[in-house]
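Predict structure. Chain length: 131.
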Amino acid sequence: MTQRREFLGGCAASAVALMTPASLMAAGSAPKAATSALSRDAFDALTQSTFRCLSGSGQAVDLKLAKVLHGPQSPKLDQFTLVLSRTSDSDAELAEGIYQLRHPKTGAMLVRLAPSDSTDHTYIAHFAVRA
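Prediction complete.
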């Protein structure tokens, strides 16, 4: 029940993030390019790479993409979850909220991160992207 609640909450936050003006999401990128950068396949290719997360106070925290969990699929909707782990050289804890994540291949994006209930220093981000 907790996982379903987390997934639905993540979908709602993702919908809010998707309605954010493009200038805040990924400056200078076309909507189609931004959508393809947010696909499950794109994140699968980035497993074990590092993302830079900017906290609300502006502090940079490095998070490694540990794995991509595949969710229900349909021809029009791609659902998946990112599992990100804090790198050992970063000691900042992130509270549940919307953060800016940056990666050279995806650019900047706003995502809702929530601390994992089962693993310390691990965060999850749910995605439901129109295919």
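Summary: Confidence is low (pLDDT under 50) at residues 21-33.
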